[in-house]
C-alpha cells in the first residue's frame, strides 16, 4: 500500500467531502485516510487501482482529481 495526497477541483462544501469519501471508499484497494474540501489523502494499492481509475471515479462523481507529480504519467 502506498500513501497518496492529491488535490480535487469542484469541491465546495461538506456534502462534497462526503460524496468524495463515499466514491473513494468504494474503490477496490483504496482506504480513505482524510478528505477535506479540495484535497484527499488515501492509502492505495496502485497495482489493484491505478490513479487513473481513482481520477475517473471522481470525474464520474463530478470532481476533478489533480494528479500529483509522480502520478501525472498515469492520469
Beta-strand segment tally: 4
Helix count? 2
Give the CA-based shape: globular
The termini sit apart by 19 Å
Unreliably modeled segments: none
Main-sheet strand order equals 2-3-1-4
The residue-averaged pLDDT reads: 91
> What oligomeric arrangement do these chains adopt?
single chain
Strand content: 25-35%
The helix fraction, in percent, is 25-40%
The major pleated sheet works out as: 4 strands, antiparallel
Question: What is the radius of gyration computed over CA atoms, rounded to a whole number of angstroms?
Answer: 11 Å
Structural class: alpha+beta
Q: What is the N-to-C order of secondary-structure elements (H for helix, E for strand)?
A: EHEEHE
Compact overview of the structure:
With 75 residues, the chain is of the alpha+beta class. Helix content is 29%, strand content 32%.
Write the layout of secondary structure elements.
Blueprint (H helix, E strand, L loop, with lengths): L1 E8 L4 H12 L4 E7 L2 E6 L6 H10 L3 E3 L9
Antiparallel strand pairs: 1-3, 1-4, 2-3
Amino acid at each position: 500500500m502506498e500513501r497518496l495526497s492529491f488535490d480535487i477541483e469542484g469541491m465546495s462544501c461538506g456534502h462534497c467531502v462526503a460524496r468524495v469519501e463515499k466514491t473513494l471508499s468504494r474503490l477496490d484497494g483504496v482506504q480513505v485516510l482524510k478528505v477535506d474540501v479540495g484535497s484527499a489523502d488515501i492509502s492505495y494499492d496502485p497495482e489493484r487501482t491505478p490513479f487513473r481509475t481513482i481520477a475517473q471515479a471522481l470525474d464520474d462523481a463530478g470532481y476533478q482529481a489533480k494528479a500529483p507529480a509522480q502520478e501525472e504519467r498515469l492520469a
